[in-house]
């Protein structure tokens, strides 16, 4: 059975697609067969990233390891029974097609609540939730008092993950390993940063996730998109000397991959 990684967060701009591309490419470069689904059927950022990569490699005459991107298959609605959801069938058909040949299936979810995203979360063996280091984003996980100290209760996204966990338990599947990644953390020791860390640690114990560092804000991520490249591809495309920011970004990716604790994965880049 392929190990399913879902990258999800119902808020846009958290870095889901950037993180998805780097996780999937790191796994592929490590020798694993990786299939990818993009559930943002309108924007398809991961799909655009893959297309940019294909065109750049073709024009450059390069061959670089990478994940295989797949569109959701079309389903004939006339074949559905009364009350069945066509999106459920499109996602389950896609996963069924990929599982026999893949070590990992990565599903990149949209930054909003959709039926597809909801079903995808129930399929997750590993759930990765990028979270900007801000109480605005924290509010998606839990409501907190005006001092940023006391957690008042879970919010909409946490409740959705809880429902996904319940569905998996009823189906006899192993629990979701939920990892919340703190993205865009400032380098300075700010009071807000410290409060965020403490609040996340308290919430992690309460609703059951692991906290790990994600990516800092770096220009390189935006620069790589038009060519469909990742940090791991830079030397292969002729960058002989990485600058300090790129070296630090590679270390962040290394730490991220280690923190995911994916089965059979050795982080050696």
UniProtKB/TrEMBL annotation:
It comes from the Bacteria. SUPFAM superfamilies: P-loop containing nucleoside triphosphate hydrolases. InterPro entries: DNA_Partitioning_ATPase, MipZ, P-loop_NTPase. This is ATPase. The lineage of its organism: Bacteria, Pseudomonadati, Pseudomonadota, Alphaproteobacteria, Rhodobacterales.
